Structure formats: structure tokens, C-alpha cells
Amino acid sequence: MDSLVYYCPQPRSIFLQELIQLSHKPTDQGFSTASIHAGYEPDEYYGSINVPIYASTTFAQNGPNELRRGYEYTRVGNPTITVLEQTVAALEGAEYGRAFSSGMAATDILFRILLKPGDHIILGNDAYGGTFRLIDTVFVAWGVEYTVVDTSNVDEVKAAIRDNTKLIWVETPTNPALAITDIEAVAKAAEGTDAKLVVDNTFASPYLQQPLKLGAYAVLHSTTKYIGGHSDVVGGLVVTNDQQLDEELLFMQGSIGPIPSVFDAYLTGRGVKTLAVRMDRHCDNAEKIAEFLDSRPEVSTVLYPGLESHPGHEVAKRQMKRFGGMISVRFAGGEEAAKKFCTSTKLICLAESLGGVESLLEHPATMTHQSAAGSQLEVPRDLVRISIGIEDIEDLLADVEQALDQLPQ
Ligand SMILES: Cc1ncc(COP(=O)(O)O)c(C=O)c1O
């Protein structure tokens, strides 16, 4: 797999430096204000309230290599994409943000920057199946080693750190078991080692949790989920306070090209403006549905960090604003009951993905996490993951109730 061996040289060119300046704009606005305004002011010519979609592959130059405001060619930078990057960076309390064509593209680029053959990564024993697949196939073939631990147990993380450990990858809450990791404790465990802590913050969104403030080195988002929020656009984003990492991310955007289209960047930026109000409603609905599910005999376990019975409840209370819109449920009737439930809801649609305004459910063992079968990340077959949307709670509860009623007692 020699073709996969590429190291990231330091970016050098002037245009990169100019773009870095443009993107370096922290804000002290409140969360909702920043989600609507950070990164963009009405343009000076027409006063457009929304960021224009700069559908332009290239930008006129004043003279050879004399760029206007840093933009040269859209693969290496586009104003519509910059605004999205600045907005999400502001929401995470980060200095820098870089957008990618998907969450997986962003993950891949981060791995390429932070790892080289012979390095070691620590991964949680519950994580998005695609992240595991990328490590277990592409990066193992590239010569990277990995250890799977329960990252909610910081002693396990500490014990797994080796001299060649360069990356600790933490999802919290995890997909799909909703396990919680103490970000601050893991960041402390990594101190004094070469291991960088990266948090996949997709499930929480920056409204509920800001891992950089808890000591993480970088944060990854699948913006396909809560940030976009409407199940109509795929994207990824990485934020950090480390200027060198940001330069390398920018270099990779320009050198490899896994950037979002400008239309997608616009749509994602439109979605993020309502993140706070959507998240509060997701949380309101999820709290009620988790309680209802917990009261039902068909259900053996409700995995929701907002329930006091959840092993990560106290940590979640400390590091999250609220507990999120994702619930996983294990059924007393096993796999058969889980699958029956998946096909019995009428309003909640059986589909992969999450974080949109509409409620979705899925059976991870046979859908999103199929690639984890037989591994330490294998998902129990009696588990159903529900992404609680922002519909009326009465309708959601009625749908869950009628679906449960169809299961054998
Ligand atoms: C937690 C998490 N991280 C990353 C990803 C990958 O994101 P994308 O589908 O945008 O490539 C997903 C996708 O489901 C996810 O759930």
C-alpha cells in the first residue's frame, strides 16, 4: 500500500498564510448570536444578509499571484466555505475550523496528519462503525496499530498509552451505546505523552459540549448530523486551537481536495443558525421518550445519559449542557423484538443517520455498524438507536407506544 504513504509537509505558500489570517477570528458572542452572525457580516456592495454562494472555481487576481483577500482557487479556499468554518469554530470556542466533504473525509485527513506508519491509536470500544472501518482497514494496511479500550474508564486509557501512541480518539456520547467519557480526565492522562486527544463531538454538538475547553486537542464533527440538522447535506469539520494543525488541515484541503461544495457549505451554514433552538427541543423530547421507554416491560435497558441510572450520568451532567437527542434501547425480546420495533413505528422512520429535525431509528448491528461485527466494537443485536427529532412530543410518544404494543409481551 505504498501509494497510501504520504506525509504532510509544512505548508509554505503565501496564499495559505493569507487564508489563515482570514480564518483566525475568535468571537465572544453568545452561542445563538454566534451561530447566526459569527464569520459573516452583510457584504459591503449589496448588504446580503446571508453569505453569498460563491459558485466560482477561481478568483480574479490583481497581478500574477496577487490575490484579492487570499482567494485563488476553490479547492484551496472559498469565501462561502470560510464562513461556515468560522461559524463552527466560534461555536466550539476554537480559533480555527476547516470544512470537509463528509465527516469521514475529515477523519481521514486528521489521521493522515496525526499518524504515520508505526504509530499507534487508542480507540473507544463503542464508536461510529465507519471510523472503526477506516482504522481497521485503510490505516492498519498503512502500518498503524490500534488498541480498543473502554474510554469511559480513564485507567484503561492510561494503561493503553505507549511510546508510539499519537492519537486518542474519543466519541462522547458514543454511537450507538451513548457511553460517556470524561474528556478532562482523558486530556490529563495524555499530558506529558505524545498522544493527542481528538473528540468526535457529533452526537453532542457544540451547543451541548465544547471539548477544546476541557483539554481536547481537536474536535471532529460530522456536520451531516446536528450542525446541518435537516438531513439534506453531508459534511465534516475539524476545529482546533493549534495553528500548526490548522495549517496542515488547510494544506490537505488544497492538496487533496476533500472540501464541501459551496452549495453544501451554504446549506450547512443555514442549518447551524438554528442549532441552539433545535438542540433544546431534541433534548426536551428525548428526555420524555427515554423516561417512557424506561417504564415499559418490553425494554430491558434504556441507554440515555440523562437517566440517573446511566453509568455516565454524573460526568455528562458536568461536561454537557443537556443530554442530547439520541437514545438507544435494548429489547427484552432480543433481536427479533428490536427488528420488529424498527418496522412498527409509523412516524419515526427506519433510516440511517441522525441529528435531523425528523425522528429516525435504526438497527446498528445490521445497518450503520455492520463493519464492527466480530470486533471489540460489535453492537448488541437487541439494540435500536433512535434519533429523536423535534416533532410534537405527543405524536412521538404515541408512535413509540403503538410500536411497543405490537411486540410480544
Ligand atoms: C459519530 C460519527 N462520527 C462520524 C461520522 C461520519 O460522518 P459522515 O457520515 O458525515 O461521513 C458519523 C456518521 O454517522 C458519526 O455518527
UniProtKB/TrEMBL annotation:
<protein>
    <recommendedName>
        <fullName>Cystathionine gamma-synthase</fullName>
        <ecNumber>2.5.1.48</ecNumber>
    </recommendedName>
</protein>
<dbReference type="Pfam" id="PF01053">
    <property type="entry name" value="Cys_Met_Meta_PP"/>
</dbReference>
<keyword id="KW-0663">Pyridoxal phosphate</keyword>
<dbReference type="InterPro" id="IPR015422">
    <property type="entry name" value="PyrdxlP-dep_Trfase_small"/>
</dbReference>
<dbReference type="InterPro" id="IPR000277">
    <property type="entry name" value="Cys/Met-Metab_PyrdxlP-dep_enz"/>
</dbReference>
<dbReference type="GO" id="GO:0019343">
    <property type="term" value="P:cysteine biosynthetic process via cystathionine"/>
</dbReference>
<keyword id="KW-0028">Amino-acid biosynthesis</keyword>
<dbReference type="GO" id="GO:0005737">
    <property type="term" value="C:cytoplasm"/>
</dbReference>
<keyword id="KW-0486">Methionine biosynthesis</keyword>
<dbReference type="GO" id="GO:0003962">
    <property type="term" value="F:cystathionine gamma-synthase activity"/>
</dbReference>
<dbReference type="InterPro" id="IPR015421">
    <property type="entry name" value="PyrdxlP-dep_Trfase_major"/>
</dbReference>
<dbReference type="GO" id="GO:0004123">
    <property type="term" value="F:cystathionine gamma-lyase activity"/>
</dbReference>
<dbReference type="GO" id="GO:0030170">
    <property type="term" value="F:pyridoxal phosphate binding"/>
</dbReference>
<dbReference type="GO" id="GO:0009086">
    <property type="term" value="P:methionine biosynthetic process"/>
</dbReference>
<dbReference type="InterPro" id="IPR015424">
    <property type="entry name" value="PyrdxlP-dep_Trfase"/>
</dbReference>
<comment type="similarity">
    <text>Belongs to the trans-sulfuration enzymes family.</text>
</comment>
<dbReference type="GO" id="GO:0019346">
    <property type="term" value="P:transsulfuration"/>
</dbReference>
<feature type="modified residue" description="N6-(pyridoxal phosphate)lysine">
    <location>
        <position position="225"/>
    </location>
</feature>
